[in-house]
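Query structure, 270 tokens:
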């Protein structure tokens, strides 16, 4: 019985709240809407708050409250997890109020919204690149900010994601034995991120891709392609003389030398 009465009280409270909110929406008292919107925001009722703030933006444009309404509107969308719209309002705030005391914060939050939209590495990384650009802009503009350390950590995380995405793209062609495409994708990954933790593996994949491409080529193309594979071999062993891929590399160079009619010991003596 007590539970039933409690449920009735809760329902009545909710209905009263909904009724109050509906009356507020129909009201012409914009100052009351402004005050209640802030109350809803502080109570984390972001949908209600955003609905009111959205209505107030054109009404308060050019007034002393315009800045505050725009600021809250951005955070309402952020609070709802709508980072695309939230980022839009943060950027709009900076555009409309560049001298505001909130401008630095909003520039950072704009970048952070891009960061929150950054997807898993296997997906398109446009948002990741946008986040990197926005964070770098923030760091360049506010080099003494207390948020610099956090911003740099986010940049490192996003760059690692792009490196991994590049590696996965190259690996995809390699695993599917699309060796001409693999060569291009691997070279791009190495050139774009020369200090990558995947460098040794990528360089080995490049060597094997060139080698397999030569093996599978028609006779007229093999000489040229075996030469490219041989050059790649020497490039690899020069950079990684004690590589974990050493046995596979030796297997490939032995096959290459056999193709050119040389034995490995004679090649090493030269």
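Result returned for the query:
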């Amino acid at each position: 019985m007590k539970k039933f009465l409690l449920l009735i009280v809760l329902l009545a409270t909710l209905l009263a709240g909904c009724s109050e909110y509906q009356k507020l929406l129909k009201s012409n008292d914009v100052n009351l809407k402004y005050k209640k919107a802030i109350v809803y925001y502080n109570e984390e009722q972001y949908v209600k708050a955003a609905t009111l703030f959205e209505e107030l933006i054109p009404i308060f444009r050019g007034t002393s409250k315009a800045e505050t309404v725009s600021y809250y509107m951005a955070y309402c969308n952020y609070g709802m997890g709508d980072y695309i719209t939230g980022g839009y309002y943060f950027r709009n705030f900076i555009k409309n109020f560049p001298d505001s005391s909130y401008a630095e914060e909003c520039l950072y939050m704009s970048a952070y919204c891009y960061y929150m939209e950054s997807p898993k590495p296997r997906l398109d990384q446009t948002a990741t690149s946008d986040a990197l650009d926005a964070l770098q802009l923030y760091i360049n503009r506010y080099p003494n900010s207390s948020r610099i350390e956090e911003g740099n950590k986010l940049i490192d995380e996003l760059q690692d994601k792009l490196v991994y995405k590049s590696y996965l793209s190259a690996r995809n062609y390699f695993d599917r034995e699309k060796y001409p495409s693999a060569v291009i994708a691997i070279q791009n990954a190495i050139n774009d991120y020369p200090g990558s933790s995947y460098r040794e593996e990528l360089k080995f994949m490049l060597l094997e891709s060139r080698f397999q491409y030569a093996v599978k080529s028609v006779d007229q193309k093999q000489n040229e392609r075996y030469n490219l594979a041989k050059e790649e071999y020497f490039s690899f062993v020069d950079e990684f003389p004690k590589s974990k891929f050493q046995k596979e590399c030796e297997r490939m160079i032995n096959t290459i030398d056999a193709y050119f009619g040389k034995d490995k010991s004679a090649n090493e003596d030269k």
